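We close this part of the discussion by returning to an individual protein. Part of our work consisted of pairing the sequence of a single chain with a tokenised description of its backbone. The amino acid sequence and the backbone structure tokens for this protein are reproduced below.
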Amino acid sequence: MDKLALKEILKELKSLSDPKALEGMARFGININNTYGVSIPELRALAKKIGKSHELAQGLWASGIHEARILAGMVDDPEMVTEKQLDEWASEFDSWDVCDQCCSNLFGETRFAYKKAFEWSSREEEFVKRAGFAMMAVLAVHDKNAKDEEFMKFLPVIKRKSVDERNFVKKAVNWALRQIGKRNSKLNRAAVKAAEEIEKMNSKSAKWIASDALRELTSHAVKKRL
């Protein structure tokens, strides 16, 4: 790896830091330890300038800096990512935005995406579990060629795990359910049915997940689009 290039990128990241942004990030539940306060559009612009580099991504992740880790997910090459790397990075998630950005920009593009969605959704660690459901949501939006059956398989998992009361988990379960239900008419009907079953469960978290998902999935706007 070009250590000079890594050093320069980390220097550039630091130059973009905005301490005032940290307050807003903390309000949104983002862990601001080792964080500079660089916006996602700025990180995307930097990623575009850098291009794809698997080696550089490893160095950025190893730095432990919040924004460097998001940037690592943006510049890594999904073809080069191993299952071991996915598990290692997921186990080090300490904030919902790093989790979601990695799933969106990198993990969902790898050949292990569906496998990890199932595996991680059964894990106990809060952000690893969140990553499992974030993957389901990302795949529902981005994997245009996947068959409906792939997403039907996620619904029983969503139902089972909707009783998790942890904020970052329940929000991801809800996100996965909504994205699956917005994919097409058939999946909309299946997701609405799942939400109605979830709503009957004796759990505050399940009731919130279901009512929020049903509000969107049965809305005029969604029905019209589908």
Remarks:
- The longest helix spans residues 126-142.
- The domain at 114-226 is CATH 1.25.10.10 (Leucine-rich Repeat Variant).
- Residues 46 and 71 are 8 Å apart (CA to CA).
